[in-house]
Amino acid sequence: MKQESTLFLKIAGILIGIPILALCIFLVPEIANFAAELFPNIAYIM
After folding, report:
1. With contact defined as beta carbons under 8 Å apart, do 46 and 35 qualify?
2. Which keywords does the record carry (predicted)?
3. Kindly report the CA angle at 16 between 13 and 19, in degrees rounded to 5?
4. Which residues make Cβ contacts (< 8 Å) with residue 46, sequence separation at least 6?
5. Structural domain boundaries of the chain?
6. For residue 46, is pLDDT > 60?
7. For residue 36, which of 13, 19, 24, 43 is within the disulfide window of CB 3.0 to 4.6 Å?
8. Looking at the whole model, is its pTM more than 0.85?
């Protein structure tokens, strides 16, 4: 029982982590570019 629940938690962690990693790689830079266009005077901070 314990081995099965540990495996389930590992798989669940990986399945939750992969989309979050993909968002950080692809979506966050797009948001930063959009914000830099809106506020060019503080773009160096981003």
Report:
1. yes
2. Membrane, Transmembrane, Transmembrane helix
3. 140
4. 32, 35, 36
5. 22-46
6. no
7. 43
8. no
